[in-house]
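Workshop exercise sheet. Pairs work together: one partner reads the sequence aloud, the other fills in the structure field after running the prediction. Swap roles for the next sheet.
Pair: D.N. / O.F.
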Amino acid sequence: MGGPWLSVGKLIELFTAMGCVLSELPGTLIYKDGAPRKIRYLYSPEADDFVSLGDLDDGDRLPPSEVESWERRLGIQIPKGADN
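Structure field:
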């Protein structure tokens, strides 16, 4: 267990390169500050499951435990190297 913290943008890049699809829900959420936001998600056709990107931005960094959770859910092991 353990590994580098990875940015959401890098994770999207890796998972889509390995067969996942990045998509958005058709609706828009309005946050407390009044700002609208689309909800993105990664879908794995192989696992027939998804990971919601909710309120995550591409620059947000996730700990190794969260990356491992995404891998289990999407059925894909991503390559891990240095911090991204």
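Discussion prompt: The mean pLDDT is 90. What would you look at next?
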